[in-house]
Design brief:
Pfam families: Ferritin_2 (PF13668). With 494 residues, this protein is of the alpha+beta class. The protein contains seven helices and twelve strands. The longest helix has 27 residues. The structure holds 2-acetamido-2-deoxy-beta-D-glucopyranose (12 copies). One 2-acetamido-2-deoxy-beta-D-glucopyranose (NAG) binds next to loops.
Length: 494
């Protein structure tokens, strides 16, 4: 019943049996050095202590700066917003200079090339090669340094706040037994609680880099009803949270802010992977994690924020109309092909797949390798969630809908008629033709392209957009896709 127990016993037996070489086909001369180690046998420990006493001194944690928010924010309310916004629309600059960024030739000064492995320029001091930004002794300033930085970090803070509430919320609404039924133990609950603590630290860091106008925590409206659905939602939410940061990190004006933000997003990446493992998905079925533009992250996030306190700093990013995938696979099924159309809890683009499917169609408590999707370090799926060439049925919303905190933002698009589906995954942007079947519906097929040979580009939780053109873009100029985006959705490829 409980997958933890199964996993533990397999691990123990794996240690006990040493398989004969070769264990990796084609990898020869792998002989172990001529030492012989005999693993201890016998009964494992059942009593623990007293331990040896070792040299130590008494320490105290010392004084750390306070966090902006405690981990538990007291009484919370959740659910949809039912009021009237006092203001609407995205934050706007006093002046806006154009409608599209014209492409330019490469930066004329970016010409460095090293043909011989030798240092080309005088070194400032021994062991420090010439170059680098922020390496000439300038004192670091850990503050946002432009409107671009400010809006990016403010978006990041909106994300950290929902995660802080979300992780606690799942622990609060589901019992230990509910978690056990999903194969997650009391230790896993502590781990999720620890992730919530990480968020209060991240929110403090981002607040400090913004200053006094940094937004506070808001009120949220979650889509899940069960532990599996909670985990699935977390897996999706942290996916766009992480990818949103990868999208803007290298573009920040403040390298100092980029430095600290990298150090928090590395943690978020681990959270995303852990939630995949808790859902029995392959932990990281890709070689590269993708980046998306800020307006994409905001589009995915906004529908789950019901209201924010008066005077909360507003965001300048765009909210695109929603792109719905009618036939995303259900990761709770051992046979993802059998997923019914619209097998979601709701119709927001990141809503989790329904976990209340018949027991004999579920993979949650299955023990068979290749078919189980109980929590594990890694899982093989004999029947993949999706595959190249799979038909993907889509519908999309018209612009002009109220979304986000207090329903105070409005979805918009600057694009013409949709013609392509853009798949943003790993290092790649791939377009497939859209076949329209109605004013707001159509289909396409999952592409088969690879990043490098052996690494299919589309896998994991993948970002898809409906576009009017197939503009050639690469990771560092991806945001130039925005004027071409008709609608934005999420595809559960693996
Ligand atoms: C040091 O580098 C910074 C950019 O990293 C630059 O703005 C500044 O002018 C440099 N200072 C000197 C004295 O070269
Ligand atoms: C995605 O990754 C999983 C796990 O490695 C694999 O089973 C599946 O075939 C992959 N999908 C594609 C399209 O390559
Ligand atoms: C949003 O709703 C909250 C709660 O009703 C209210 O305090 C706040 O002022 C509203 N904000 C906007 C921008 O309407
Ligand atoms: C919101 O801002 C207005 C104008 O600055 C101010 O009068 C009001 O007190 C603020 N409300 C809150 C709750 O801070
Ligand atoms: C997708 O749409 C096609 C018609 O275009 C239909 O035949 C197919 O059954 C649909 N698939 C799903 C899973 O809804
Ligand atoms: C799922 O559908 C694809 C396409 O029709 C098919 O090739 C594949 O065999 C199906 N998977 C299983 C396990 O039947
Ligand atoms: C989502 O939208 C589709 C198509 O409009 C509809 O068939 C389905 O019932 C909706 N699902 C929910 C949970 O509202
Ligand atoms: C899975 O394995 C556990 C422990 O080995 C066992 O108790 C349980 O009945 C098995 N479940 C199924 C569906 O076979
Ligand atoms: C897991 O999948 C890989 C390929 O994706 C395959 O090589 C391996 O044999 C599978 N392992 C098990 C235990 O099924
Ligand atoms: C599609 O849009 C056109 C123009 O707005 C409208 O006349 C037509 O009825 C729509 N078709 C459907 C199937 O909604
Ligand atoms: C994916 O991106 C890599 C790296 O930029 C590129 O070499 C490759 O051709 C791309 N693959 C496809 C299918 O576009
Ligand atoms: C984006 O960058 C690529 C080079 O990586 C370039 O070929 C392409 O033209 C650029 N796209 C636009 C719209 O500037």
């Amino acid at each position: 019943m409980f997958n933890k127990a199964i996993y533990a016993s397999t691990l123990l037996s794996a240690f006990a049996v040493a398989a004969p070489a070769p264990q990796v086909p084609g990898y020869t001369d792998a002989d172990f050095p001529d030492v012989s180690v005999t693993e201890a046998t016998g009964a494992p420990a059942t009593t623990f202590g007293p331990d040896s006493q070792i040299n130590a001194i008494l320490t105290t944690p010392g004084s750390a700066p306070p966090r902006r928010s405690s981990v538990l924010t007291g009484a919370t309310s959740h659910g949809p917003f039912s009021g009237t916004a006092t203001t609407t629309g995205a934050e706007q600059a006093p002046t806006t200079l154009g409608t599209a960024i014209p492409p330019l030739p490469p930066n004329p000064t970016a010409t460095y090339y090293n043909p011989n492995g030798k240092l080309q320029d005088p070194a400032p001091i021994p062991y420090q090669p010439n170059g680098g930004a922020g390496t000439n002794g300038t004192e670091p300033r850990y503050m946002v340094n432009s409107d671009f930085d400010y809006e990016s970090i403010t978006l990041g803070l909106y994300q950290e706040w929902i995660e802080l509430d979300l992780f606690n919320n799942g622990l609060a609404v589901f019992s230990e037994d509910d978690f056990l039924e999903a194969g997650l133990t009391a230790e896993d609950r502590s781990y999720i609680a620890f992730m919530a603590q990480q968020e209060s630290g991240h929110a403090t860091l981002l607040t400090n880099m913004l200053g006094e106008s940094a937004p506070p925590q808001c009120t949220y409206d979650y889509p899940f009803r069960t532990v599996r659905e909670f985990i699935d939602f977390n897996q999706k939410l942290t996916r766009w949270g992480e990818s949103g940061v990868w999208g803007f990190l290298a573009h920040l004006d403040s390298r100092e802010v980029g430095n600290l933000l990298s150090q928090s997003i590395a943690t978020e990446a681990r959270q995303q992977m852990s939630f995949r493992q808790m859902l029995g998905l392959h932990p990281m079925p890709v070689w590269f994690e993708t980046g998306i533009p800020q307006s994409w992250q905001w589009t995915y996030l906004a529908p789950y924020i019901s209201s924010c306190p008066e005077n909360t700093t507003r965001l300048a990013w765009q909210n695109f109309p929603a792109l719905h995938v009618a036939n995303n696979p259900n990761p709770n099924r051992f046979s993802p092909n059998d997923t019914a159309a619209w097998e979601y809890v709701g119709n927001r683009t990141s809503d989790p797949a329904r976990s209340d499917i018949p027991a004999d169609e579920s993979c949650v408590n299955v023990n068979t390798t290749g078919y189980s999707c109980g929590p594990a370090i890694a899982r093989n799926r004999s029947e993949p969630l999706t595959f190249p060439g799979r038909q993907v049925n889509l519908t999309w919303d018209a612009p002009g809908q109220a979304v986000g905190p207090n329903n105070s933002y409005v979805t918009s698009t600057a694009a013409k008629l949709p013609q392509f589906v853009a798949w943003v995954s790993q290092l790649n942007l791939t377009y497939t033709p859209l076949v329209t079947t109605g004013n707001n519906s159509g289909y396409t097929y999952q592409p088969a392209g690879e990043v490098y040979e052996g690494d299919p580009a589309v896998n994991g939780t993948t970002f898809i957009a409906l576009t009017d053109e197939d503009v050639f873009l690469t990771p560092f100029n991806l945001s130039m896709i925005n004027p071409h985006v008709v609608a934005l959705g999420l595809y559960q490829a693996g």
